[in-house]
Amino acid sequence: MIEDVVVEPMTEEFILWRCLHGGPLSRDTIDQWSSTDKMPWKRYRERNIPLLVKLTRTYGACAILARDGDRIVGHLRFYPKAICDIEGAGGPCLQQDPPGGPAEDFTDSDFPDPAQIEDKTLGVHCLMTGSSLQKENPYQRKGIATRMVRALIEWAKANGWKRIEADSFEDLPIIYEVTGSAGHTFWEKLGFRLVDRHIHPELENPSKFPQFVKALEEQAKSIGLSPETARDRLVMRLDLT
C-alpha cells in the first residue's frame, strides 16, 4: 500500500550508494548485479559508500529515502552547494565517472564545517520514485516525491539551511521517465520559484544524447513549445526564511 511508504532521511544504518534505475533496492539486493552488467558497480560502491558516510556524518544527512517495508522505492539526493563547488565534486552523480560524477579521491577532500558555510543553500541533485526502466512503476505519481521534498524542507529548516535549489525542465513526460529530475510545475506547487534559465550544459551538443534530445524536442513540439526550450535547465529555488 502506498500509504505504508515511510519517508525519512538516510542514515548510516543503510547507505543507498546507487540509484533506482533498475528498480527498488534493499539490504539483500543493493550489492547484487549481473556479471554481464557493463556498469563498474564494484568501483562505484568503493567510492560512493565512504563519500556518503562522510557527508552524512558531517551534515546530518544527504538524502531523503522512501521505504516500502525493507525496500527503498524513492530517493532524493541533496548536497550543500559548498560541497559541489569543491574541485573533484563532479555532477555529482553516483553512477558516473568524472566530470558527471565525483572523482575517486573526492572523499579525501576537506569538507567545510556546517558552521563555516556562508552560503546556506542545499542543491537537489536527483529525485526518483520507483524505476524509470520498468514497464510498470506503482510508485510514480502517487505523491511520494512530494512527501520526500516536504521532508527535505523540514529537515533543512531544522538544521539551519536557508534555501533549497533544484534543477528542473519543461513539463515533458520523458523528464519523469528517464531522468532524476522533475518538471518545473512540480516544484512550483511546492513553493519553489524560477531564478535562472539556461541551456543544460550536458545538452548543449545534441549529438551527445541524440535520442534523448530528439524525444525532448518532439514532446515539446507536441504541446506547442519551441524545441530549443526543451533543453533548458530551469533552476528553482525555495527560500526557507
Describe this protein's structure:
The chain has 6 helices and 8 strands; from the N terminus they run βαββαβαβαβαβαβ. The model has no long low-confidence stretch (mean pLDDT 93). Strands 1, 2, 3, 4, 5, 6, 7 and 8 form an 8-stranded mixed sheet that branches. It has a domain at 2-161: Aminopeptidase (3-Layer(aba) Sandwich). It has 241 residues and is of the alpha+beta class. The termini are far apart. It is 26% helix and 22% strand. The chain has helices at 41-59, 81-84, 144-158, 173-178, 184-189, 210-222; strands spanning 6-9, 63-68, 71-80, 121-129, 163-169, 182-183, 193-199, 232-239. The chain is globular.
Proper CATH architecture of the domain at 2-161: 3-Layer(aba) Sandwich
Please give the oligomerization state of what you see.
single chain
Q: According to CATH, what is the topology of the domain at 2-161?
A: Aminopeptidase
Query: So how many helices?
Result: 6
CATH class of the domain at 2-161: Alpha Beta
